[in-house]
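Discussion board: Methods & Data

I've been asked by a reviewer to show the raw model output for two of the constructs in my manuscript, not just the figures. I'm not sure how much to include, so I'm pasting the format here to get opinions. Each protein appears as its amino acid sequence followed by a line of discrete structure tokens. Is this the kind of thing reviewers expect to see in a supplement, or should I convert it first? Here is construct A:
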Amino acid sequence: MSDKVRLKKYANRRLYDLERSVYVTLEDISDMIRKGREVTVTDAKTGEDVTAFILTQIVLEEARKNNILLPAPLLHLMIRHGNPLLGEFFDKYLEQTLKNFLQYKSAADAQFAEWLKMSADFSEQTVRSMPGANPFQSFFDLFGKQ
């Protein structure tokens, strides 16, 4: 199974997976993408690439389910300043910004996991070096005295 999935979009808005020879839903496509597959969609009649349109539909449908995608003030700005500004922003900045965010998030998650591991190792070493000692005993004693 290839990482790329080719789909055809028919006039009746149905989407056909050429690899599996089945019709798929927007939710099916969303699941494919979450699993790491890359999707391309062409219009069956014209051969035009409509991938961006279909992916936008998926994003908007998921936003509708959660009742928010972008804050209203940002949407007002996008409408007010129009297509040229948005095209430049999306082409030049948004994709790279999201990639950077995901890279930094991954690095932060890995660092946090390392800190948790170090903490667990330290606790284990303390127990081995001081058998029978409870590091919280003095704290618990505060509540035991009446």
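Construct B, same format:
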Amino acid sequence: MSVLRNVFLAAANNRGLQRFVQRYGFRLGAARFVAGESLDAAVPVLRRLNESGLLTNTTLLGEGVHDEAETQIVVAAYRELLDRIRAEHLRTNVALKLTHLGLAIDEELAFRNVAELAAHAATTANFVRIDMEESPHVEATLRIYRRLRESGHENVGAVLQSYLYRTEDDLAALLPLAPNLRLVKGAYLEPPEIAYPEKKDVDAAYVRLLEAQLTGGGFTAIATHDETLIEHAIAFTRVHEIPNERFQFQMLYGVRPRLQLDLVRRGYAVLVATPYGPDWYRYLMRRLAERPANVLFLLRNLIRG
């Protein structure tokens, strides 16, 4: 399965395949994982999830922007999104990628843009999660997160990836900030020189990071669909008397919805990451890389189409 995963992760950057897949739009099954191609389409999905007892975050899909003027369009779209969340009374926060805000152009540009959005989010009583991207962007992303916190932005969080060897040191350096961190396994194609190539090692690192984060203070977003890891987290929080307010489970829209609702019934907060936007191709490829069931779902739609 690691070979299949690598194939789909490599396909995420294949322009020719992207044109083919996006030609058929949501017929291929992207609608299972993406709330719509517009904010108007996403709002009813976010409301429905909230009404079923789930928290949500949402992302305007996009990354790798190389035009400063385009980053201003993205900032404006996120400001509109934050205002719409407030107007619609949604229990939804925002997640974003720094390369969507200009990190590939200039780190200072990305900082200014995300700082503007964090400040605007504060006026709407909302929160901004900075997603983690490929390994070349990790150092700058963490620098920007630190700068935001040092500048007084308390309503921001970051993401750590357990498959990177460096992450345990990164977590130790961040813990004095009492950070709000989402812990994921990692969804990019990384070389074995910097990332664990075997799933068992990624999972073991996830457990170490999870336990260190839960006992280190701050807030922990446990982002996984792995029931073994989820049950380990639940048992660990009980043994160490960590209150439910200090953590939540986070999952992806369209992935394990029954598990999401089951955890809510058990009394745990569950947030569903529910992205939208026309630039959904790379996001879809990463979802297909994660689980064989997602690939079968796509193939069934192709056959029916």
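Answer (T.O., handling editor elsewhere):
This is acceptable in a supplement if you add a one-line summary per construct. For B, something like: DSSP finds twelve helices and eight strands in the chain.
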